């Protein structure tokens, strides 16, 4: 009797997916209590040894708006001078909300490059981009932080946070070192070092969110990004774009226009962004609306290789939406160890989908990630204890319970 085939069989999904770990930046930025530099560096070091190849490490934003990220220059300095040595290439990403933030990033990199490097053969080189950067004006007036959720109207920083999804058990037998650092074909240039640094910018899919978060319209925010992209590409620095509230806005509700999301995404790519992560910031996304969004992105001429998906698990739909993305051909997903992160402006919201849960889900479908889920679960338990918060990762807690039995 011939074997029956279903829409989500292992044979169909048996390939590789890339995970972008956002815990050290997106996950920690809203924590109430100050987190020490040592804890942040230790978190990054541990994550680097799980097989993850892309890590959000910090944010060059004003400490006035995001005090938790005030030591990002020190994080970058330590990574450049004393990089983890996991045996595979890693890209460390830093958010730069405006030209001033990018200049701080560059100044820190230049200062560290002039000093002797310890623990690595050389200072990292930035992957070059095959895309040409148009000549754009170099003015930038943005002083706001376009992070995850908008800054409060009264100017208060985001100081609350909730953990989200659970860590996941590893059923993969694949060699983590066989995983590419990004989707095949998108890596630019020849890697001569063990790691590289990148930058990212954030845009929004709704006018209300954009105005609340950056005090400007969507069009104005995109205009401000032009000199950032131009300068970054002139220095062969890879740039990642984000489009927030793509599947639900705390001000305009769940029905965000997917064509507007596609328009903003396409604009970022046309500016020179190497990849755009489309984010369900509030966790309002559902499977049907995720499918509708992906169709709109495809209709706009955006290829899957230029996209990543970023889900929050507020309503428990993050993994469901991930599978929809997989079926549609997306192979890059953002997640945060232990589900760190949160939506302080959406009542009942939780954080990013937990890396542990995402890995468990992908491995169960036969999709290779190169990530050791046992190590990831242990990190989820460790960082939860460090922060004095419960470990909200269901799969991670299950793995830890089994390991301790």
Strand content: 5-15%
Largest sheet: 8 strands, parallel, barrel
Order of helices and strands: HEHHEHEHEHHEHEHEHEHHH
What gross morphology would you assign?
globular
Structural class: alpha/beta
Report the span from N to C terminus: 41 Å
What is the C-alpha radius of gyration, as a whole number of Å?
19 Å
What is the subunit organization of this protein? single chain
Largest sheet: spatial strand order: 1-2-3-4-5-6-7-8
Whole-number mean pLDDT: 82
Poorly predicted regions: 5-11, 117-192
Helix content: 25-40%
Tally of helical segments: 13
**Number of extended strands:** 8
Blueprint of the fold:
Elements: H1 10-13, E1 18-21, H2 23-27, H3 37-48, E2 54-59, H4 72-81, E3 90-95, H5 99-113, E4 195-204, H6 207-214, H7 218-234, E5 239-244, H8 258-271, E6 275-280, H9 287-299, E7 307-311, H10 318-328, E8 332-335, H11 355-364, H12 373-387, H13 394-404
Helix pairs in contact: 3-12, 4-5, 7-8, 8-9, 9-10, 11-12, 12-13
Quick recap:
This protein has 405 residues and is α/β, with parallel strands linked by helices. Helices cover 36% and strands 12% of the residues.
Descriptive overview:
The protein has 405 residues and is of the alpha/beta class. 36% of the residues lie in helices and 12% in strands. The chain is built from 13 helices and 8 strands. An 8-stranded parallel β-barrel has the order 1-2-3-4-5-6-7-8, surrounded by 8 helices. Helix 8 links the parallel strand 5 and strand 6. Helix 3 packs antiparallel against helix 12. The longest helix is centred in the middle third of the chain and has 17 residues. About 20% of the residues have low confidence.
